[in-house]
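Encode chain A's predicted structure.
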Amino acid sequence: MLRLPYFRFLSPETVDEAAVLLASAAPGDATIVAGGTDLLPNMKRRQQTPGTLVSVRRITELRRIADGDASTSPAAGGLTIGAGVTLAELVRALHLKGPSPFSALAQAAAQVATPHLRNMGTVGGNLCLDTRCNYYDQGYEWRKAIDFCMKKDGDICWVATSSPRCLAVSSTDTAPALMALGASVTLASAEAVRTMALTDLYRNDGIDYLARRPSEILTTVHVPRLEGWRSTYWKLRRRGSFDFPVLSVAAAVRLAADGAVEAARLVLGAVASRPVEAPGAVESLVGRPLANEAIAEAAELAARPARPMDNTDFGLVWRKRMTRELVSYALRELRGDDMRECRRRIARQLV
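Encoded structure for chain A:
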């Protein structure tokens, strides 16, 4: 049986109190915990060994979801989501029927892990999810037997032994969806509060994958007004439930009255150490209707920045090819095609 290491548990009731606790801790000693669905298993495997856990579960201001008002909300009339909102609460709050600007977010949150874990896991926790790798996500003794890896206790990346950086992969579901919606996040510390575009939160480094400082708490997610937009999220994994993505695609478009694309965003997940945007594919779509030719061209362009590595499930060549497939499925769905059977095939891995 894997056991947790000893740690000190603190449970503040306000963001300010939590920020002070983080600021007063020794460097590298304190870690934020919300649902703990990723952190606690990592601690059991000794991948992360903080001496102090600062829980944010009792901070009520982090558990709110609100429609913004343009005069008062940083979301400028959009949606404001507290980082402590559970994934299950988020899905229930959105309760979407039919196409919606927030469909991608609802679909992404609904496909994280299992119902039990969605009842515990939070939006903020999923956005800050640790990067994953077949060599890293093992027990301590297994990792010790290979002389560890660059991400923890070693000095070599076993995915690509000549790589100067860790290639562990980003496996968050909600980040690509929220990036496709143009979201921003607020980070609070004892010294200051700052807001940044969600895309700026991530770095393409398996170890240093977040721009969030150790003393900062991700408090809020802001989604802007998305009038006229529609979005979707597609996820590839071995099993139709529970598994992390080995590839995901979040797409959002705003269509003109004649069907031409006025604006679009495409974000790929699980193909690098951060969610990857596909600007070339977006540029090819703008000003054109979502005809089959335009979709095929965009899918080809979107696959180019995808760099799947041999550090997750399935073969990397097949995952690269599936990038084109999932992008085309997503765009066809946004065009209005009925993709329910194709989604069922993806869930059963019978594509």
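The mean pLDDT is 94.
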